Amino acid sequence: MLREDGLLVQKFDKLLIANRGEIAMRILRAARELGIATVAVYSDADRNAPHVRFADEAYNIGPPPARESYLVAEKLLDVARRSGVEAIHPGYGFLAEREAFAQLCVDAGIVFVGPPARAIGIMGDKLMARSTVMAAGVPVVPGTEPGQSDEEMTAAAVRMGFPGLVKAAAGGGGKGMRPVSRVEDLAEAFASARREAMAAFGDDTVYIEKMITEARHIEIQLLADSHGNTLYLGERECSLQRRHQKLIEEAPSFVVDADLRRRMGEVAVAAARAVDYVNAGTIEFLLDRDKNFYYLEMN
Known about the structure:
The chain has 299 residues and is an alpha/beta fold. It has 9 helices and 14 strands. Strand 9 and strand 10 form a beta hairpin. The protein starts with 13 loop residues before the first strand and ends with a strand.
């Protein structure tokens, strides 16, 4: 469909929501307002869930465990083919940040309502993401490089100074992270972080960053379209955490003034553009006591 301003806009007539619960209901309501037909999926445990009743069509995809239903890409794509949808919306969680699922949708001729597979792949690997955004001039926390041995990372940690933070390259949510205050503790931190990362993400790659003490966790919200337009919307203060999980978000942050907001927003846009990002997204920063900020990750 061609708009009056000349931009080509893709309109869907039928959409599959590859999720359940509250997020599925949000997407279903939005689709109904836009006149888009909807297809829901459900496990045996969700047979009578609200999103199943609200959708125009609903298909069972297996037993209650998510690994046997909502996380099985082939089942979702089979439903997509059988129901004749043009697009799949993953919501959040489950397969929303799986590069392979996004690419499978594209390969099947179905639009993945989310970021491009390449962007998911790069930003989902913290080491690759660091290298990519650094090349775009985005400030990052000092840390080790991809492919370094334990001995090389130990030497780098000594040069950077302690405290340091051993981090898993894959995943997030605080898993595979170990603070280290002495060089003597690094070997055990490497081993325990790798065990947790392998169990959580199937990838035991780790690296070390300098720990920014007394830092604030500031997130910048982004919107990016497929025509090269990217903009930042504002920030959220997410510093109150437990076990690296946010407890409270506050917007706007009371420590971010107009100038800092502009600078952080422009850097966030540069990071998103470095991977040709499309869709809604969040760039996470650490802000130190001197108002220096560093890229942390993208969601």
